[in-house]
């Protein structure tokens, strides 16, 4: 196996350069020959993300209204977010509409996140006014036991208004899609009540589709939880934030395009010098060309497809690698953590002095 490139110039995604243009990237001319079949546009592969309007949750405003109307039953808000993007992609409307209640931020999926800069993350969040933060893994129930004591303390030290007489606590769990809100509820029940699933969990965004009735998660203190559907920000602040959200699975892959997302993933892994994909797919070495990587992945998976090509002598059927299946496998492998832990907000953590 070739050793991964160690030149100071970071590897860049072929197509991302046109749009992202980070100052350290050197854009290269696109070769039309190397485009993958079905690419929407070689120059603007992320255009489908529709920066500005996220578009993924059509009824986001409606959900927020429903959540707001349930606020009178609620003592504390637990916002769940993905630990791989601790600084970006949270919905600012949550603070505007639900911000009057005490707030705990749970950064979930810590098993998939590179948390070597945990202190910097916490300092950054504290500067944004977020003092109560817990990292969790709801699949393995790690740190989940810290949630109820933190909530109880927050509620104790805040004004409960008309709920002052109630002995029980009610928490509303909010967040963007697919970050593990329902998993947190199930994990809390496992930990405190030794009971099974109360709410459906799934690998795709949009599994929870209604503000649920209260679910008990603890006996002493008596705590109930309200599960809610994931709500994306109405405006995604930048293309890169949108891509990070999509990599974390908060947006359905087809809205961005699996091949485009795979390109951004390859770019990110190379920039962070995370070359686990080389070994995982048995490549000869690190590579910054997504078409080459996807071709190798497709061959390795034995995924090929027949396509009709119009030639001067008529239609010819040719067999070529199934780039789409390869891209989906690449994304799935990354999301399962098989390519190693990652911090997608690494750039946001660098102070100007560091760079
Ligand atoms: N690796 C890892 N996966 C997790 C963790 N927590 C949840 N998941 C997985 O993430 C996926 C989404 O979990 P859900 O609990 O359905 O997420 P949600 O936020 O309720 O999603 P919506 O209801 O669609 O908004 C599922 O496949 C879970 O198994 C975690 O801590 N680590
Ligand atoms: Mg859910």
Q: What this model shows, in words?
A:
This protein is α/β, with parallel strands linked by helices and 355 residues long. The protein folds into two domains: 16-45 and 257-349, no CATH class; 60-235, Rossmann fold (3-Layer(aba) Sandwich). It contains 13 helices and ten strands. It has a six-stranded mixed sheet with strand order 4-3-2-5-7-6, covered by helices on one side. Helix 2 (60-69) packs parallel to helix 3 (92-98) and helix 9 crosses helix 12 (323-335). The radius of gyration is 22 Å and the shape is elongated. The model is unreliable at 1-58 (pLDDT under 50). Magnesium ion binds at residues 181-182, 207-208, 227.
Structure keywords:
elongated, two-stranded antiparallel sheet, binds guanosine-5'-triphosphate, 6-stranded mixed beta sheet, alpha/beta, 355 residues
